Amino acid sequence: MYKNEFDNILRQKQRNSAYLFYGEADFLIDNYIEQTIKSLDIAIDEVEKIYHDDYDLNYIKNQLSQSSLFSLNNLIVIKTSKKIPKKEMEVIVNAAKSNPDSVVIFAIYINEKLGTHEKLFTPKGDGICVRFFNPKPYEAIAVLSQEANNLGLKYTQDALTHLYATHEENLSLCVNDLKKLQILDEEITYNIISKYCFGMGEVSVDGFLHNLFDNKNINKEIYLILEEGVNEVFLISQISTFIQQLFMINSYTRTHGYPNSKEILGYSPPKDVWEKKTTIASKIKSKQFLEIMNYYNDLELELKTNRHLDSNSYVSSKLRQHSAIFC
């Protein structure tokens, strides 16, 4: 089934027992998982996500076969970048079909046709299969338009096109930036994208944040980011978001034993960027996260309330003090 066909099914709020979403478009797969859950009116606490390292056939079969004592729905999302044997998938699908309260969604991030697996997911058999290909540019811009509308943003079409090109056609990074741009409370234009969004080949805010928390010399980055016009409040907001991500990485790792980027961030950043973040997160003690967050919350409040403040110089000074206080 093609994506546009499935869009009609979503609008009709049709419920099936088993779904197979697969292909090379990671963002679209994750996005349609969320849309499917929403169309089925299933609450987040009724959804269990299982990743490849936690995959256990018997556990999944038993969970789907039994109705939950605490909710009306029983939905399991299985996420993996490896092919699941067809016989095992068939066992899971049949378990979901045997229980009217159960639904299973397979999300397989693989650039390979799963022809034999698709046969388990036919409309007559109470199943849906959608293969997601990387969208064409006009399709990607339409996705970004929808995301921007959902976020309540005002924007120009050339701004979205510029953002898509800036992030080398990575929808996950584009949507992540749209969420950050909400703080500006103004129309998102081509110039706004140029001013606040950084591609992989430019001086990036993420690169600056890695150096800031890794106790490296940040004088050059401060100049490039602040002196060339990045809004101070916007920058502090991004630092706060970065701190929250580090805290989530730290907490998730202590709970599960390993950091899963898709679960924590909602997308997979470049390997080297993710490794830097996880390394930094592991070095910060749990109690210190609150101190760091309070430091930047106070800084943001000062910027928003003190009209006579030289914001540029003040933020530069505070960022240079970071290493002395926390590293």
Question: Looking across the biggest beta sheet, what order are the strands in?
Answer: 2-3-4-1-5
Task: Supply the number of structural domains.
Answer: 3
Query: Could you report the average pLDDT, rounded to the nearest whole number?
Result: 86
Percent helix, as a range, is 55-70%
Query: What's the CATH H-level superfamily name of the largest domain?
Result: P-loop containing nucleotide triphosphate hydrolases
Low-pLDDT ranges:
none
What is the CATH architecture annotation of the largest domain? Answer: 3-Layer(aba) Sandwich
Give the tags.
327 residues; 5-stranded parallel β-sheet; 3 domains; single chain
What order do the helices and strands come in, and which of them pair?
Elements: H1 3-11, E1 18-23, H2 26-39, E2 47-51, H3 57-65, E3 74-80, H4 86-97, E4 102-109, H5 115-118, E5 127-132, H6 137-150, H7 157-166, H8 171-180, H9 190-196, H10 205-213, H11 219-227, H12 232-256, H13 261-264, H14 271-283, H15 286-305, H16 311-326
Parallel strand pairs: 1-4, 1-5, 2-3, 3-4
Helix pairs in contact: 3-4, 6-7, 6-8, 7-9, 10-14, 11-16, 12-14, 12-15, 15-16
Summarize the structure.
The chain has 327 residues and is α/β, with parallel strands linked by helices. The protein is built from 16 helices and five strands. Helix 3 packs parallel to helix 4, helix 6 packs across helix 7 and helix 10 runs parallel beside helix 14.
